[in-house]
């Protein structure tokens, strides 16, 4: 058995599930309903991977009150869940990779900008929750990605030093959050192409989890 000396921290949307097209369509429908201009390019640059408080402030170009934020977030996320529900499935190779990590006693956590309603939908809907020792969502932090708080909190929850954590991320904001937390980042080329990801500072770029081994990930944090 592999002797685990590191932890793996997973982003949710775009990593555990390859669902960003559904988020894009939900945001475009939501924005149209509120007569706000929004394009896919703007989504990718300003919304992808960000917490709803920041995304809504961008869409409406103003501060959103806490009460309004709850209503608007649930409106958008209900559209997303309706669109994605028939397609809900784990990313290719994910279940095998998570089982291998568990067998090697690697502590596992999720660090997501998503609201808790989407965490229930994804982690309990599949179900993926039994694999994870900790889940940190948007409601548990003051500052969303690209701030490192979500990943620092996840590392704290599994009791592993940031330098010994490997973050799996698809979003620019999430990659930056992992790097600013002092962690090793593996970029997943779901939302962005390998070309777009190549200068973002990730130690490795993968298309999905097929064929990924515990040893390969461990090498990123374990001196040879
Ligand atoms: O990629 P993460 O951190 O799981 O982020 C979740 C967020 O990702 C964004 O891309 C979605 O548009 C949001 O609606 C969602 O809540």
Automatic annotation (TrEMBL):
<dbReference type="InterPro" id="IPR051600">
    <property type="entry name" value="Beta-PGM-like"/>
</dbReference>
<keyword id="KW-0460">Magnesium</keyword>
<dbReference type="InterPro" id="IPR036412">
    <property type="entry name" value="HAD-like_sf"/>
</dbReference>
<keyword id="KW-0378">Hydrolase</keyword>
<dbReference type="InterPro" id="IPR010976">
    <property type="entry name" value="B-phosphoglucomutase_hydrolase"/>
</dbReference>
<dbReference type="InterPro" id="IPR006439">
    <property type="entry name" value="HAD-SF_hydro_IA"/>
</dbReference>
<keyword id="KW-0119">Carbohydrate metabolism</keyword>
<keyword id="KW-0479">Metal-binding</keyword>
<dbReference type="InterPro" id="IPR041492">
    <property type="entry name" value="HAD_2"/>
</dbReference>
<keyword id="KW-0597">Phosphoprotein</keyword>
<dbReference type="Pfam" id="PF13419">
    <property type="entry name" value="HAD_2"/>
</dbReference>
<dbReference type="InterPro" id="IPR023198">
    <property type="entry name" value="PGP-like_dom2"/>
</dbReference>
<comment type="similarity">
    <text>Belongs to the HAD-like hydrolase superfamily. CbbY/CbbZ/Gph/YieH family.</text>
</comment>
<protein>
    <recommendedName>
        <fullName>Beta-phosphoglucomutase</fullName>
        <ecNumber>5.4.2.6</ecNumber>
    </recommendedName>
</protein>
<dbReference type="InterPro" id="IPR023214">
    <property type="entry name" value="HAD_sf"/>
</dbReference>
<keyword id="KW-0413">Isomerase</keyword>
<dbReference type="GO" id="GO:0016787">
    <property type="term" value="F:hydrolase activity"/>
</dbReference>
């Amino acid at each position: 058995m592999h002797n685990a000396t590191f932890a793996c921290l997973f982003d949710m949307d775009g990593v555990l599930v390859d669902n960003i097209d559904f988020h894009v369509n939900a945001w475009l429908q939501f924005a149209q309903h509120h007569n706000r201009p929004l394009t896919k390019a703007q989504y990718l640059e300003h919304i992808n991977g960000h917490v709803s408080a920041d995304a809504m402030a961008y869409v409406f170009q103003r501060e959103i009150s806490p009460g309004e934020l709850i209503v608007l977030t649930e409106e958008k996320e209900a559209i997303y869940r309706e669109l994605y529900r028939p397609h809900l499935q784990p990313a290719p190779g994910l279940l095998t990779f998570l089982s291998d990590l568990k067998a090697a006693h690697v502590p596992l956590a999720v660090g997501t900008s998503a609201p808790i309603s989407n965490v229930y939908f994804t982690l309990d809907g599949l179900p993926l929750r039994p694999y994870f020792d900790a889940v940190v969502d948007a409601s548990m932090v003051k500052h969303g990605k690209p701030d490192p708080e979500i990943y620092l909190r996840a590392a704290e929850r599994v009791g592993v030093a940031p330098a010994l954590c490997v973050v799996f991320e698809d979003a620019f904001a999430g990659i930056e959050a992992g790097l600013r937390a002092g962690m090793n980042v593996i970029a997943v080329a779901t939302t962005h192409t390998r070309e777009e990801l190549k200068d973002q500072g990730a130690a490795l770029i993968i298309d999905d989890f097929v064929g990924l081994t515990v040893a390969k990930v461990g090498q990123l944090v374990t001196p040879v």
